[in-house]
Amino acid sequence: MLLTLALVLAAIAAAVHVVIFVLESVRFERPEVHGRFRTRTEDVEAVRPWAYNQGFYNLFLAVGAFVGVVLAAAGSRDVGAALVLLACGSMAAAALVLVRTDRRMARAALTQGLFPALAVVLTVAALV
């Protein structure tokens, strides 16, 4: 039961990170999007390559979490759980770095980090 809940939370975390990928790598130049990242319009051209790259980091973490969910649900519990822990642990750690770097980003860090942190806690609890 705990593992099932952990996998649901990991899938939600992965979906959130796919959305972040779209915002950073596909739609970043739109004012309503880059403004969310506290980027001024006049700085978009300079920041765009970093945002693009960061978006792909988020996508790769999402893929890792999704693959972990699928593997664990398909019976490869230990391998799937390891991938969930790696991907979601990285997502949660990145959220901590974000809020530590700029406290004004606390809401974004919560959005980015809550589901993966809960997935990590429940995955560990399910494995113990």
What is the secondary structure topology, with strand pairs?
Layout: H1 2-26, H2 31-34, H3 44-73, H4 77-101, H5 106-127
Coarse structural class: mainly alpha
**Count of alpha/pi helices:** 5
Given as residue ranges, the uncertain stretches (5+ residues, pLDDT < 50) are none
Count of strand segments: 0
Residue share in helices? over 70%
Mean pLDDT rating: 96
Distance N to C terminus: 13 Å
**Principal-axes shape call:** elongated
Question: Which band does the percent of strand residues land in?
Answer: under 5%
Taking the sheet with the most strands, its summary is: none
Written as H for each helix and E for each strand, in order along the chain, the element string is HHHHH
Over all CA atoms, what is the radius of gyration? 15 Å
Please tell me about this protein's structure:
- The protein is mainly alpha-helical.
- 83% of the residues lie in helices and 0% in strands.
- The protein is built from 5 helices and no strands.
- Helix 3 runs antiparallel to helix 4.
- The protein starts with a helix and ends with a helix.
